[in-house]
């Protein structure tokens, strides 16, 4: 299962070299290739809403009070490239040096924190342009980069691009398979382009689910060849969206899930979001709702305070959601004081499965476990590109669940019935902890027993693998360091299936498991179970309460 997946509802080319962001189609194809059977869509919520987004660019050369920045980018055989802002217009000039090949001089309008990147289905752009020096070998160009898609209908994988050119003759053509070009004849005076990107995507590539597209990157420039000089100016850009802030994206993405799901029937798609105007947190709920951010003007700034994050968690908990703390800061004192912001889950592995990051995050996770902050550890896929899951070191977030319905998966996540397995090196691996013949991973056992028999499942271990049983102190002391001990077992210890282990309770303990291959590379991690005194007054979430069967205290 991927619990952190981005798509055309939030991703774009907010990088100097562009490259587009993932379409939903690209992510589903990656899920298929890696055997990922559940995809939670968790696009950035404020990008889904277009909250605080630009509705105009005035080309006055400033940041326009909105974090806007301009970067020149030259491509191909070009010389004399220059640009200037004057009178609320951007003028671009360049000369092509090749007799046959086009060169281009661009100005990339970087929207700061991607303040125009969102799904483009409801978007119309209106742009004023002035073609000053154009002809058969020189054109003024406005470029829209959309989303990345896998190879489809005989076309290569790549980013689909729309270009609107002002030149000598009107035309509509496809270049190099993935670039749709609309050329408008220059009038020699200011003229206005009214652009509906969705309509043009549909006309150029009728087989596409065109609604699965982001407005990713905007560039303004000239192209030229054969020693011709192109020059022109760009004036007022208006970005018009018809969406309702809270309902439109939810409705549209659900519709795309249904349409695209017909090609991927083996993959369950579920809708959530990454809350992103406070500390980043993923939200999982059966009937997803977007948070109603109050108006904070254009280009609002993230509120990184603990209080804002806790308020967001409370709002979603009131609506029955689970909240996941994404890529948490390594601040153990704050984690303990804030009780992990009140979150239910925490990303314990990063998107690259970096060993240092994993060690640091599990250190943090163990501090939480020591203080009876009951979290479910998950893996951070957090993919934005939709290109190469199989070559990355992603871990699956694998769940023991009755079904792949949202209700059952949410129940399993809340109960901690989750293990993390390397999707490339240990795809068939599984982990569990059982007590009294029942799964106890993620559970809290309150008992007067001095110790408890636990059986550990580590299935399909590769030859030479090692299983570490990690036992930690849970003294609820407010300590900001972990206190753990490890016992290592060879894969042969699991030849009979389950490994018996006795967990001493003392003042409180928890147990979890880590798996490594023969070279010491991490393969898997279980979630913990806790063993606490039955006299302890710690508040245990209902989903984590484990009641021993009658007579089991005699074991």
What is this entry, summarized?
The chain is mostly beta strands and 555 residues long.
Outline the structure in words.
The strands form six sheets. Strands 22, 23, 26, 28, 29, 31, 32, 33 and 34 form a nine-stranded mixed sheet that branches. A seven-stranded mixed sheet has the order 4-7-14-9-10-12-11. Strands 3, 5, 6, 8, 13 and 15 form a six-stranded antiparallel sheet that branches. Strand 11 and strand 12 form a beta hairpin. Helix content is 15%, strand content 37%. The chain has 555 residues and is mainly beta. The two termini are 36 Å apart. The C terminus is likely disordered.
First-last Cα distance: 36 Å
- Proportion of residues in β-strands: 35-45%
The stretches of 5 or more residues where confidence is low (pLDDT under 50) are: 550-555
Rg, nearest Å: 27 Å
Based on DSSP secondary structure assignment, what is the total number of beta strands?
34
Overall residue-averaged pLDDT value: 93
Using the alpha-carbon principal axes, give the shape. elongated
Largest sheet, strands/sense/barrel: 9 strands, mixed
Structural class: mainly beta
Helix content: 10-25%
Number of helical segments?
A: 8
Which SSEs are present, and which pair or pack?
Elements lengths: L1 E4 L18 H10 L4 E4 L3 H5 L6 E2 L11 E7 L2 E8 L4 E7 L6 E8 L12 E11 L4 E12 L8 E10 L3 E5 L3 E7 L5 E5 L1 H8 L12 E8 L4 E13 L6 H14 L6 E4 L1 E3 L5 E4 L21 H12 L4 E4 L6 H7 L6 E5 L5 H16 L5 E4 L15 E5 L6 H10 L2 E5 L7 E6 L2 E2 L4 E4 L3 E9 L6 E8 L10 E7 L7 E7 L4 E8 L5 E5 L2 E5 L11 E2 L9
């Amino acid at each position: 299962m991927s619990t952190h997946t981005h798509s055309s509802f939030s991703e774009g080319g907010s990088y100097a070299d562009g490259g587009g962001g993932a379409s939903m189609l690209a992510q589903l194809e990656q899920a298929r290739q890696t055997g990922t059977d559940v995809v939670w869509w968790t696009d950035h919520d404020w990008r889904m809403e277009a909250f605080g987004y630009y509705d105009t660019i005035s080309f006055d050369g400033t940041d326009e009070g909105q974090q806007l920045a301009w970067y020149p980018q030259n491509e191909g055989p070009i010389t004399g490239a220059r640009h200037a802002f004057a009178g609320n217009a951007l003028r671009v000039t360049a000369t092509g040096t090749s007799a046959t090949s086009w060169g281009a001089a661009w100005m990339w309008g970087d929207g700061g924190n991607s303040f125009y990147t969102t799904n483009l289905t409801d978007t119309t752009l209106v742009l004023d342009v002035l073609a000053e020096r154009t002809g058969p070998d020189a054109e003024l160009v406005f470029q829209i980069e959309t989303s990345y898609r896998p190879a489809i209908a005989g076309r290569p994988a790549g980013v689909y691009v729309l270009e609107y050119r002002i030149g000598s003759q009107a035309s509509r053509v496809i270049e190099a398979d993935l670039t749709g070009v609309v050329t408008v004849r220059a009038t020699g005076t200011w003229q206005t382009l009214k652009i509906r990107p969705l309509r043009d995507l549909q006309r150029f590539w009728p087989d596409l689910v065109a609604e699965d597209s982001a407005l990713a990157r905007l560039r303004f420039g000239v192209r030229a060849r054969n020693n011709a000089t192109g020059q022109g100016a760009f004036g007022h850009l208006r970005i018009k969206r018809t969406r309702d802030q809270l309902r439109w994206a939810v409705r549209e993405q659900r519709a795309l899930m249904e349409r695209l799901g017909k090609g991927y029937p083996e993959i369950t798609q579920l809708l959530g979001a990454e809350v992103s105007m406070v500390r980043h947190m993923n939200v999982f709920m059966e009937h997803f709702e977007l948070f109603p951010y109050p108006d904070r003007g254009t280009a609002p700034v993230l509120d990184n305070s603990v209080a804002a994050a806790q308020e967001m968690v409370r709002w979603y908990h009131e609506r029955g959601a689970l909240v996941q703390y994404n890529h948490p800061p390594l601040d153990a004192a704050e984690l303990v004081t804030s009780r992990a912001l009140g979150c239910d889950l925490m990303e314990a592995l990063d998107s690259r499965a970096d060993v240092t990051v994993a060690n640091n995050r599990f250190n943090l996770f163990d501090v939480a476990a020591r203080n009876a902050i009951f979290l479910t550890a998950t893996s951070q896929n957090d993919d934005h590109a939709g290109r190469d899951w199989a070559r990355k070191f992603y871990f699956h977030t694998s769940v023991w669940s009755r079904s792949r319905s949202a209700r059952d998966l949410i129940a399993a996540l809340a109960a901690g019935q989750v293990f993390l397995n390397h999707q490339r090196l240990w795809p068939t691996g599984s982990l569990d902890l059982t007590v009294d013949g029942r799964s106890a991973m993620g559970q809290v056992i309150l008992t007067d027993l001095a110790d408890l028999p636990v059986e550990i499942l580590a299935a399909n271990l590769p030859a030479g693998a090692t299983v570490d049983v990690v036992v930690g102190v849970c003294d609820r002391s407010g300590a900001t360091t972990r206190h753990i001990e490890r016992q290592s077992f060879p894969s042969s210890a699991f030849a009979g299936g389950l490994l018996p282990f006795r967990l001493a309770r003392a003042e409180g303990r928890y147990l979890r498991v880590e798996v490594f291959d023969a070279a010491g590379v991490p393969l898997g991690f279980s979630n913990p179970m806790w063993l606490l005194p039955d006299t302890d007054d710690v508040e245990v979430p209902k989903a984590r309460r484990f009641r021993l069967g009658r007579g089991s205290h005699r074991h």
